[in-house]
Amino acid sequence: MVLRGNNGTTYELEAASFAQGGEGEIYRVIGNSSIVAKLYKQGKNSEIKERKILKMINNPPDKSVLSQIAWPSDVLYCNNVFMGFIMQKLDINEELNIVYEYGALAKYAQMSWSNRITIAKNLCAVINSIHEAGHTCGDLNPKNISVNTNTGRVVLVDTDSYHIKDGYYTYRCEVGIPEYLPAEVQNKMKAGVTLATASLPTFTQETDNFALAIHIFQLLMNGVHPFACAIVPSQSSVTAPQPSDNILRGNFPFMKDVPGVTIPPFAPKIDILPTEIRELFRRAFISAHIKPNDRPTPYEWYEALKKMGTNLKECPKVSYHQYYNMLITCPWCEADKAYDNRMINLQKSSSTNNMTSINASQTLNSPTKSTSRASTPSVKPTIQAPTTNYSTSTHTRIKTRIAKWPVVILLLILVGTVIYCSSIMKENSRLTAETYNTKSTLNLLIPDGITVKTMSISNTDQNGATITGSLSAGTLQFLTVSYMALAKDNINSYIGNEIKINIYQPNGNLMQGKGSPSDATISGKLVAGTNVFNWGNSTPGSYIPGFYQICFVYEGKTIGQTAVFVGQ
Predict the structure, then answer these.
(1) 411 in a structural domain
(2) Which of 59, 344, 353, 445 places its Cα 20 to 30 Å from the Cα of 22?
């Protein structure tokens, strides 16, 4: 099947799709493994959808994060009939709701807190890039968010359902799950009114910020939804409210006293979080119930999470338990004990049915301590401060030519100053998404006492000569990295030991090549002073654009990391 793009480019698709959803199917593109095509099912390829996709193509997020967003890059036609669109092939590993599962039998039960913080920060980075482009996500349920659990990178999918504005016209997001919709949206969905028919505005960047806060809460708090709850034992005959009901009423049980209601037994108290993080949750779920603009932005969350990630300590009993370093005891050990005790009590009292009603099954991501997974209804990245559109009023007229020119000059100076200041603010607020680095995130040396510090990254030819200019996919040959090893004791005791270097492509795949170890891109013996390694291909054009993550591994443990962006 051969289809035509907007500018005449042709794409030959494989005969059969390899994935499908409610609206369309995904096909591989023959001869180009870096992209895929989404073709809509009959009746879904409307003219409105075509205009929406074209709007998205002409107004993409920053190119540095396009490897983390299934964003349209070209439209597809067959005999001048709109069929679908082209997008970058993304490294999709796991849906976010699977990461939320709780208990010893959960798939990611041993994922550390620092890694969950990294996922939260990367989610902030990619959502902020959408907002900076002037768009709104809308349906941010966890099935639309994928995580590479090997690196912590986040990927947003189903972006063609996003809430896109085009001047005065809005291409609506018509789907959503109540557990991730704030009260101002739910209040419009009554008496048969849907997201497709509700009065605008429905989704906004503030509603995105609400869903973002929920995901951050679940990542930090044992996968518990912030509006999940349990009924106190004295009122065991009462059914626990649904999270969507608590959202509608503004009942955030972790910070607000609600008669007869308590938090789920496997949930730690919110006091385990730093004061700054607790205040952001208060704004997101209590203050913003009345004033949606009070919700923290992705940038605010990113900065607070970054600070929190440098103030963690490890549990002396369970190696993968990490918590805020101002706490005396491990909250995860306490939560596990409380849950286990509750399960024992439930088993003992099951014959009388005199038990606390736990709201674990009432929310799509409430954790379960079993092999079954919670079911879900079908349904370097940079952060930059949003810029403001400035305009001058034309209602006041200067009547004399003598007075007019100084005012014009003054306005030009003012506009120039605003543009300059805006660019400085934008540059100073750039934040980079990360991959896991458990030990350096804790600001500690590994038990063996060695870590590495990156000094420089450059593009060289096979003889080591530097190739000038910015790193680009078309000119990059050998990625040459200089680094220095640091130790808490005598560095000489590590000289001659092997350091493995893992280089991950923007899609999250480990780079491999002739002579590379099976679990590393390259390895070398540690020397005193500056160490240099290079890996690549003497033929330009062997790389794909995006962020390349470089991890240094010693005796199976990551002891340092860095990242470099390779442009088009």
Answers:
(1) no
(2) 59
